[in-house]
Amino acid sequence: MALGFVSSPSFLVAKEEYDLAVISGEPVAATKKALEAIGGISRFVKKGQQVVLKPNMSFARTPDFSATTHPLVVVTVAQACMEAGAQQVLVIDHTLHRAELCLERTGIPEACKNIPGVHVLALQDRKFYREIKIPQGKVLERVEVIKDVLDSPVWINIPVAKSHSATGVSMGMKGLMGLIWDRESFHSKININQGIADLGTVLKPHLTILDATRALTSGGPGGPGEVKKPNLIIAGVDPIAVDSYGVSVVPWYGQNFKGRQVEHLLISHQRGLGKIDIDQLKIFKEKV
Amino acid sequence: MRTFLQALSLLFFSTLFVFATYKLPNWLPADIYLRLDPLLGLNAIFAAREIIGRALWALVTIGATVVIGRFFCAYVCPMGVSIDFLDLLFFRKKKRQGLKLEVSLRKVKYFLLIIFITAAIAGLSLAFLMDPMALLTRFYTFFIYPVVITIINLIFDLFRPLFQALGLVTLSHLHYPQPVFYMSAITFIIFGGIIALNRLVPRFWCRYLCPLGAFLSLFAPLGIFKRRVNQDCNECMKCQKSCPMGAIPEDPRGTHLPECIQCRTCVKVCPQNAITFPTSLSLGGEYSKIDFSRRGFIYSLAGGIGVGFLATQTPFTLRQSKFQLIRPPGAIPETEFLRTCIRCGECMKSCLTNTLQPCLWESGFAGLWTPKMDLRLAPCDQNCNVCGKVCPTQAIRSVTLDEKTHAKVGTAILRKEMCLVWAQNKLCLICDEICPYNAIVFRPVEGYRRPFVIASKCNGCGFCEQRCPVKGESAIVVVPDGEIRLKEGSYVKEANKLQLEFKPDPGDDKYILEESGFKIEEKKNTEGKGLPVEKPQPKKPKGFL
Fold it and tell me: How far B482 CA lies from chain A's nearest CA (Å)?
């Protein structure tokens, strides 16, 4: 502690204090700065660890539709993980559209192909999933989750900011549904907002990096719809805080909302999964 | 040498088959074997009553046969290769006596050829039943392809722990989607039967049944290479016994030229080295005759017309466009489609999503094995137009992605009595979420936002039908109503003329915002009041409080 204090006092203070890093700028520079501001990737990734990154690459859409995470954001985080000494980085999603097309169109594998140790995988078979219990579940007792996420010491959620016709917005919390096998029941059997909160009690990302470089403010989750350009990267450890801030950066369907007005975020907050009121957060803001 | 060429041909056929996926480059004709098949070409041209560009490739085969002889069967035909190779595997050591009926059986293939051609003239595409190229492509599509994928996945599963231990991340996560088809079993039984017939006599299929062989044999005697036996022959009859086609008569110096496929097995087995295949322009006298009774000719002619009549003059024909059948985008109008399609299965093999499935009786005998879209099984992906690209007769037109998007295959309709939102007031909107064209909108009805289909924006891709979470039949189904089937011309123009728009339009969501009503607090509204209360319709979009 003393040593750290001597070596770089201001920096160390910074990483301990801020709940969120909100960086405005181009995808690569903003992502780098956000990682730095939240305390550096080495705060989360230790040498020799396997890291799972969970971007949204669920739709066979090119990045300009804003239905999927920007490949440059993903590759910047992946690169940082490798530089921090990660054994390997698995970029994983359970895609909604045909996997090969999603991989092709989102540009994420293409962006990552030159970094050794980074593997982009769409896991479309049940054998890659393992059932876990949800002790605090209200509508779900158990759920099948991608094994690699359960087995990795650290995983980072990298959602894109977009509207969603069922849940209002789809960001980090809604993105948890990309890690599980059966999602249809969320729409047909159980209350989707409670279901997401249930998932939140067992699937806790070590870091959430919200790609709001573009935001699909209508027509989500698959698009096409209106694409706005907030040019923001929002990073934080608290998944609700990140999403809640994300709600505030653009109008959705032409209206301004707060995090509290998004049902699944409010429920998750009420169940103790994170802070929802952004005016009570310490936020590091910068433009790069 | 022959075995090598045969293996090469089968390999080429298989490679093209593997390449027939949505990534198929435009320059690669994956259907080339089917195009080169004159029987399929002739069948489609007669049945459709017009010249089909791709079928003209068959002239190459005809030309080569006229010049060289019936070499195709021995060196090129992948069905012949399969028969020969599997023969080696299963029946090499079996003693086969030959058949007493040899002479009359040999005629069968000609009868079949006449039946098929006549049926085509009567407007029924039938050659697919027994054309070797169509048969083999079907067998590959409906049997070999799914089996191979299963085996590959089993191997991956077997080695997965090893891959994991070695840290091979990609390999340890590899899994290919399993293609599935109706009628795999039927296809297998037919192919298995053809192979099993070899137990009786080598190349039973080629000798007695293959209508393509029959067609090529008509030109075979013109070929310049002909078997010749010199005076060293001691009539040991080894060549006669070993000829896979039974093309050598009692007198081993002669050759049934139409039957000879120039495999040169006789050259190899001859102990006297008395046999050669020099070039010769003679026509071989009595041995080039195709022994074919006039009566048989008449019978098969009648048979062809009969089958053509039975299959086309039925209520099925009149109801052709009224079946609940969704054809692939770009499929020409139904009557022409049934006449032109040669049922090779190539479109179903290459289909990205596996939605294309073979018909059994859905549109009568005339529609056997034709492709239909099974949208409950899988949707049609808007980034793929491969089915037209690989269609050897262009029964499905090869069109650009934009044109294909406008080739509307049908329209989704909501069955409200089954829909979770309409019937049970549940919060489901999967159809809206997945629709690539924003053709589904939610409008407030009785206090709930409920889905509607905007028919003019729906091109029938079927994502909604496939994803609908209702068990059993989907609550939203695509029906052929509104399909655009053009023989020629632009689908885009036609769609514009009909004022259809398959472009995603964000404007729809503004509409939702203005009129949406989602979160109704039901209890509050109905509490303590005897009369039903008009429910308020909040202005916020779904998911927001």
Answer: 24
Q: How many domains does chain B have?
A: 3
Whether residues B381 and A90 touch (CB distance < 8 A) is answered with no
Q: What is the pLDDT of residue A225?
A: 84
Cross-chain Cβ contact A166/B506 below 8 Å: no
The whole-angstrom separation of Cα B417 and Cα A130 is: 36
- Are A224 and B428 a contacting pair at CB < 8 A? no
B169, B436, B469 member nearest A88 (Cβ): B169
Q: How far is A210 from chain B (nearest CA, A)?
A: 19
Q: Are B326 and B410 contacting, i.e. CB atoms less than 8 angstroms apart?
A: yes
Rg (CA), chain A: 18
User: Considering chain B, what percentage of its residues have pLDDT values greater than 70?
Assistant: 92
Q: In this predicted model, what pLDDT tens digit does every residue of B381-398 receive, in sequence order?
A: 888 899 999 999 999 999
Examine the domain organization and report whether B199 and B77 are in the same domain. yes
Largest Cα span, chain B: 114
A33 alpha carbon, distance to own chain's centre: 17
Whole-angstrom Cα distance, residue A262 to residue A284?
Answer: 24
B154 and B205 share one domain: yes
Disruptive mutation site among A123, A196, A253 for chain B (greatest number of B CBs within 10 Å): A253
The DSSP annotation for A92-155 comes to EE--SS-HHHHHHHH-HHHHHTTSTTEEEEE--SGGGEEEEE-TT-SS-SEEEEEHHHHH-SEE
Give the predicted TM-score (pTM) of the model: 0.85
In the CATH scheme, what is the code of domain A21-287? Answer: 3.40.50
Q: Which of A123, A165, A261 sits opposite B429 (nearest CB)?
A: A165
Of all residues in chain B, the one with the smallest CA distance to A191 is B427
Nearest residue of B to residue A122, measured between CA atoms? B173
* C-beta separation of B188 from B141 below 8 A: no
Give yes or no for a contact between A88 and A118, defined as CB atoms under 8 angstroms apart.
yes
Inter-chain CB proximity A255 and B541 less than 8 Å: yes
Closest chain B residue to A264, measured at CA: B543
What is the residue range of B230's domain? 225-280
Shortest distance, CA B69 to any CA of chain A (angstroms): 46
- State yes or no: pLDDT of B263 exceeds 60: yes
Q: Cα angle vertex A32, ends A27, A34, to 5°?
A: 95
Q: Residue B543: give its domain's CATH number.
A: 3.30.70
Confidence grade of residue B107 (pLDDT, cut at 50, 70, 90)? confident
